[in-house]
Design brief:
The chain is 78% helix and 0% strand. The protein has 64 residues and is an all-alpha fold. It has one domain. The longest helix has 27 residues.
């Protein structure tokens, strides 16, 4: 794949994953499904999103 195609596909995939993780974190934090105290999951979600963004940067933007 070309560099631009790789960047676009990585942005779409990472964006969808971030939307899913943020939505899941929000639903847990608001008490959906009987869970309370969503702070630990929110911290894990922030860490996972940071790892995904670093991987995006490393695979698509970083120069070799």
């Amino acid at each position: 794949m070309s560099r631009m195609t790789n960047l676009i596909m990585a942005l779409i995939g990472t964006g969808l994953m971030i939307i899913f993780i943020v939505g899941l974190s929000y639903s847990i934090s608001t008490g959906f499904a009987g869970f309370t105290g969503g702070l630990p999951f929110a911290l894990i979600a922030i860490f996972v999103i940071a790892l995904a963004l670093y991987n995006l940067w490393e695979d698509t933007i970083k120069k070799d």
